[in-house]
Amino acid sequence: MKILVINCGSSSLKYQLIDMNTQVAVAGGLVERVGIDNTMLTHNRGAEKFVIDLVKQKELGILITDHKSAVALVIDLLLSVGMGIIKSVDEVAAVGHRIVHGGDKYSKSVIITEEVVEEIAKCAKLAPLHNPAHVIGIRACQEIMPNKLMVAVFDTAFHQTMPEKAYTYSLPYELCKEYKIRRYGFHGTSHKYVSLQAAKLLNTDITKLKLITCHLGNGASIAAVQYGKSVDTSMGFTPLAGLTMGTRCGDIDPSVIEYLEQEVNLSPSELDIILNKKSGVLGISGLSSDFRDIEIAAGQGNARAQLALDVFRYNVIKYIGGYVAAMNGVDAIIFTAGVGENDIDTRADIIEGLSYLGADIDPVRNKVRGILSVISSDDAKIKVLLVPTNEELMISQETLALI
User: Fold this and answer.
1) Does pLDDT of 321 surpass 70?
2) pLDDT digits (tens, 9 = 90+) for 125-180
3) In order of start, what are the domains of the chain with their CATH numbers?
4) pTM for this predicted structure
5) Which of 26, 184, 261, 309 gives a 20 to 30 Å CA spacing to 175?
6) Nearest by Cα to 246 from 296, 280, 294
7) Residue 74: phi, psi to the nearest 5?
8) Cβ atoms < 10 Å from Cβ of 287
9) Active-site residue list
């Protein structure tokens, strides 16, 4: 049985076709710059990689103008003789869609109905860059693959188990209720997946574990997972809150926004661009949002690059410490995502800042990238794990469970 996983961004389409018997992606890829000039396609079939640039697209008669044409192209690629992996769409049992925002309505994945699509559209004001694209992607799949079962897997769903004290903002209660202002949290699919994998690695029932999952990448968030349920997370009403990130500012005093608006005469849209796209480690370093570039510059003595790394790691340490307090203890700290899985120095610095808890990292075991492993020392009171995330596999598993 094969499940197609679709992840529509504002101008992109990620996809994977996963064989549920082996739990392995047999094909997948990325369509970039959908609806924009110079669309780029990267398609993988097993270990084979095909890059289809604009020139090759014209040669092949490919025209990508919107998400509907991008979905049609994905199906054509999966069926094609040269690059495909299936002979018929009938081989696809169902389609799982990654949905960024499900509001406070959905606490788990659901089979997509017209009502579900309408609710996803309603949440567009909470995730304007993502939810409209998700709706377009669902509609495109419905048109191209009519009667195919489809499932919505929400980034926010895993965090719906947070207690009211964790998700409530200190604003007038009536405003929060009327306008659905609360902490929602994101990266839920990743936090759930790595939590389950960590329990397997520790050979312990997840309902007996207190875990802190650190999804550290260009977008970054931390979650407190107590006995298998999210009880707090760093991202909030939007993915802007929490940690310093690649280009996002994370937590700041709200008065800074009004101050900038008055002092620099910035419009709301200009402020939004600054907070979401020009801040974070990019804003501090003035160099890049890529942690690899910043680490190279820091190694060469660039003070602002080093400051960017220090701020990021300090933020992570503070949030972990806060979540240890919130759960009254922790059994394991988990690193995942691009930075978490690959940045040896960042992991080491963060755990060094938590030595008071009895956390310790083994320098030899820590010299790994992207491999499921225990990287703490044998006598550490708190286990430290590296768990590669696989959101697409989690989406496919959720989809399979529902169909």
Assistant:
1) yes
2) 888 878 988 999 999 899 989 989 999 999 999 999 999 999 999 999 999 999 99
3) 2-154 (3.30.420.40), 203-386 (3.30.420.40)
4) 0.90
5) 261
6) 280
7) -60, -45
8) 17
9) 155
